[in-house]
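Risk register update: the risk of archive-format incompatibility is retired. Evidence:
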Amino acid sequence: MTNAVNNLTFPRLLLEHAKTIPKRPAYREKYLGIWQETSWESNLEQIKQLTCGLASAGFKRCMNLAIIGDNRPQLYQAMVAAQCLGGVPVPLYQDAVAIEMIHVLNDASIAFAIVENQEQVDKLLEIKDQVPTLKMIIYEDPKGLKDYIQNFLHSFKQIQSAGNVYSQEHPEFFVTELEQGKSTDLSVILYTSGTTGKPKGVAHTHQNFIRTGQNSSRFDRLSYKDNILAYLPMAWVGDHLFSFAQAMVTGLTVNCPESKETVMADMREIGPSYYFAPPRIFESLLTQVTIRMEDAGLFKRKLFEHAMALAKRVGSNILDGHSTSLLDRLRYGFFNLTIYAPLRNALGMSKIRVAYTAGEAIGPDLFRFYRSIGVNLKQFYGQTETCAYVCLQPDGQVKYDSVGIAAPGIEIKLAASGEVLVKGVSVMDSYYLKPDATAESIDSEGYFHTGDAGIIDKDGHLRIIDRAKDVGKMASGKLFAPKYIENKLKFFPFIKEAVVFGDGKDSIMTFINIDFEAIANWAERRHIAFAGYVDLASKAEVYKMIGECIDKVNIDLADDPMLSHAQIARFLILHKELDPDDDELTRTRKVRRGYIAEKYAPLLNALYSGKNEQFIETKVKFEDGRDGNISATVQIQDASTVKELLT
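Archived output:
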């Protein structure tokens, strides 16, 4: 590198790639069915035009730039353009409703926003009067915006054209501005999901994410020859690490799908070598496989079951290079040609060299499934405050019940309470403009308090039990770890979400959200008529099937010395899906347990009082923005404990 490591910024990395790998693709975007490439050389020129255009419009050093939309090369370019001017990009969740954006826009004092399309423009126009600092909105896709006449609205191309003129008039401006940047400058503000309150802005410097990107890329031997599919929210720290920081560090290619609906088809076409998805995506993919096999003929089903039994027994050992008998290797090789490889191809994972999951714990059986068919799936652990980088799993040292060892440049220790404390290259600079909150989270020794409770085993692997605030005790004084139980429930393809209760109680109860697509398919094959989600969720056949899933979880829990006492006693199937728009989940689909307990208090009380059913009416927000109500009489069913199952 031509610049000292301690003075690296993302714009300097842009210059480096444009010089050393100018013709390599920085981005690919599928548009109207055709993949369009942007080389690093062209990427530099487009960012230069945008940078100068923003400057000519009045964007200055230390200003914050809101970025809202699906994964698009132009929006990633906007991040670097803001950084070139000494500004800070602030990505927002593109699926957030307008009112949810007000807090972030005001908290970050946003004056300029670059958005994807008309949908995002309309949201900002709806709330502009409540965001007094907002002066200019720039849109990338002009479709539907021809008749919008507001003088503060400008197209992406207009800004770039103005930037081209500005650059010609001030030929030294771009490089002069870029060279003022320091590694200790803020590079991004990412807002937390706000599980327990209003989201806080997590301020990271260039050196935070660059060192994290360098260390994690070396760990998995990433290079400019790798490519990744960018389809998760740009406001999420995971996407910022994989699709921005690591891409800018290594020069790897970022592929942007045409739409949410085409992600899987686009993934199969691209064949990424590097892949990331939260557990819910892997769960969804497995659900699709399960549904397809349910529809297959008897011979194919039996063959698949036989192949998967072998894969479960030896697949991970073969992937990790551990000893396996010659006969098993030969059998695995046959099934790899006939079943595993076609399955990987159908999932778009045929070329994957490294795949990661994080965000929440992944069920061991789900984890084992992917590794058993030859997908090098690993876990990592981190938070928004740590650049999503605390622990990584080395190849050959993958444990299903851990999140790996301390990542390079990271120190981990456990507080007396069991809380995981983290210190190192990835720890945030601060919570934006919140010194008190920063001081509460980062102690005098520089350790960030994660809020997670964990255990470090004899090999140095960290095992996360639950959020520290959620870990409690039952009335008996024994451990209560709801997330641990919920993750076991969510392994089943028919269970989309689960919310477990039991803190301070004598027994464990749970709310279940069914996966409508999976169970609708299951019901149709059994000729079970239903009128919609509410009707299907109340069916006796569905309750029986979910009860069998819970029985299996209870058997699994009985063998766990830590939580053998925490078997599920009773359950109900909620009459509606938990939804971020109804404040029941965060935008990253984390359960807001306290809010759910309060909102559905009649159901929770009915579970613990021994009732067999409970009427409830619930306020909901429909997709078109209208408010409404859903009412139902929810059935409640007892679960079988292991003692009952074995007698």
